[in-house]
Amino acid sequence: MPPALRWLAAALASAGLAATAAADEPWIAVIAEAGQQASIDSAALARIYRRRTQVDGDGRRYIPVNLPADQPLRRRFSRAVLGVEPEALDAYWNQQYFLGVTPPHVLGSEAAVSRFVAATPGAIGYRGACPDDSAVRVILLIDPAGALHPPGAAPACPPP
C-alpha cells in the first residue's frame, strides 16, 4: 500500500476510535439543589457559568461550581456549554477579576460537587448523569457528543 493510502487508512481508523470513545463517555448531569424549581436552558447556563447572570428571577444568587480544569468531565462540560476548553477562559477571568467578578468555585470531585450543590441554595454543578443523591435535581443533560437535553433524556442508569 502506498504511504499516502496508509496515512489515510490510519487517520480513518483513529477517527473511528475517537467516535467510539465519545459514544462510550457518560452523559453529564447539570444539577441544582432538589428544592430549586427554575428550569435553565443552555444559553442561561452559559451566562451563569461566565457569571454574566448572577441572580435568578426571585433574586436568589447563582453559585456555579466546577471540577478541576484537568478533569475530563470539566473539559466536556466547558466545550458543550461554553464552547471552549477551560484554559481558553483564563484571559476572560483575568479581565473579570478586575471588574470584581470571580470565576466559579472549583471542587475536587463529583461527590464534592453533589454535596455542595445539595447544601447550598442557588448552587449549580455537574457530574456523571446518574447522581445517587436525592438532595440534588437534574436540570439539564449533556450527551456524549456535547448536545444539551432536558432531564429524563439520558439512557437509564445502571442499577446500584
Q: Would you give an account of this structure?
A:
- With 160 residues, the chain is of the alpha/beta class.
- It contains five helices and six strands, in the order H-E-H-E-H-H-E-H-E-E-E.
- Strands 3-2-4-1-5-6 form a six-stranded mixed β-sheet, sandwiched between helices.
- A hairpin with a 5-residue loop joins strand 5 and strand 6.
- The radius of gyration is 18 Å and the shape is globular.
What's the SSE blueprint?
Blueprint (H helix, E strand, L loop, with lengths): L2 H22 L3 E6 L8 H8 L13 E4 L5 H11 L7 H8 L7 E2 L3 H10 L3 E6 L7 E7 L5 E2 L11
Parallel strand pairs: 2-3, 2-4
Antiparallel strand pairs: 1-4, 1-5, 5-6
Main attributes of the structure:
160 residues; single chain; D-Maltodextrin-Binding Protein, domain 2; alpha/beta; disordered N terminus
Sheet with most strands:
6 strands, mixed
- How many structural domains are formed by the residues? 1
Low-confidence stretches: 1-22
Strand order of the largest sheet: 3-2-4-1-5-6
| Quaternary structure of the protein | single chain
Termini Cα gap: 50 Å
Please name the CATH architecture.
3-Layer(aba) Sandwich
Shape: globular
> Helix-strand pattern, N to C?
HEHEHHEHEEE
SS class: alpha/beta
CATH classification class? Alpha Beta
